[in-house]
Amino acid sequence: MNATLRASIVLLAGMFAGCSNTTPGPRALPLVSSGATQSFTRQSGGSVQFAYVVNVGSNSVSAYSIDAASGALTQVKGSPFGAGTAPNGIAVDWTGKFAYVPNSRANNISAYSIVATSGVLNKVKGSPFGAGTGPVAVAADPAGSFLYVVSNGSNNVSAYAIDASSGALTTVKGSPFKAGVRPNAVAVDPAGKFAYISNSGSNDVSAYSIDATSGALTPVKGSPFRTGSEPFSVTVNPTGRFAYVATPGSDNIYGYAINAGRAHLRRLRDHRLPIRARAALWKL
Predict the structure, then answer these.
(1) pLDDT of 149-191, one tens digit each?
(2) Which of 143, 266, 156, 278 is nearest to 215 (CA)?
(3) Which one, out of 136, 146, 195, 270, has a CA that is 20 to 30 A from the CA of 245?
(4) What domains are defined for the chain?
(5) How is the chain classified by DSSP, letter by letter?
(6) CA neighbours within 13 Å on the CB side: how many for 55?
């Protein structure tokens, strides 16, 4: 994978979701993760911003407060916090109350409650929760009701209901749901109606509708949708109208228009965006 494409993948992962696949330092996270860094703003008597980074080499999560004026990071007291073996991504639920880390070699998910004023992580009772083989990516729906974890060793996605009070996870009926070969990233659209998974082994994207009551996933008609070689990351723009998939094997980014009624993906006219066009994506 060339350096330009690496930079573009970081852009693709972070441009809409506020997170990236970068993990600076001597022990970088493997490039099969989704959301190795996660930041968010907690509204609690003013804006308090925190950032979380998983550390695959030390099996932990580093937490930082973000200076609103300068962007400087200050390590949160007690950080880093323990995780499972080979943590491989992190997601903060959209309410900012809980954080979830898939542990790729332990086949489970560490769950934490977030202290609103300090950003400290406290383990949720019952954590870690079981997952598939090799969980590598995680995403929560916008309502903070459901969590989706992709496992590339078992080629599936596990779905969980999130307890709004404790953050504990309960497996959704029918979970896990089948994905493609070596799935490695997951994204939920801003409306919480659809989920998309990039499959690096089968060169496609699986699309699902989300049951608003149960969180169960149902493949949409036409799924999976073809991509370039070795799709690595998938994201949906804030309007929910477009999806983008980075494909390291073919050195480009695939763009799709989303049919809002049924999650169907239609390739954009110039769907294979060259890496040099990545800056233009910021204008969408």
Answers:
(1) 999 999 999 999 999 999 999 999 999 999 999 999 999 999 9
(2) 143
(3) 146
(4) 3-281 (2.130.10.10)
(5) --HHHHHHHHHHHHHHHSEES---SSSPPPTT-B-SEEEEEEESSSEEEEEEEEETTTTEEEEEEE-TTT--EEEPTT-SEE--SSB---EE-TTSSEEEEEETTTTEEEEEEE-TTT--EEEPTT-SEE--SSEEEEEE-TTSSEEEEEETTTTEEEEEEEPTTT--EEEPTT-SEE--SSEEEEEE-TTSSEEEEEETTTTEEEEEEE-TTT--EEEPTT-SEE-SSS--EEEE-TTSSEEEEEEGGGTEEEEEEE-TTT--EEEEEEEEEEGGGHHHHTT-
(6) 15
Q: Would you place residue 280 in the very low, low, confident or very high pLDDT band (cuts 50, 70, 90)?
A: very low
Query: Which two three-digit tokens encode residue 95?
Result: 């309410």
Identity of the residue numbered 52:
Y
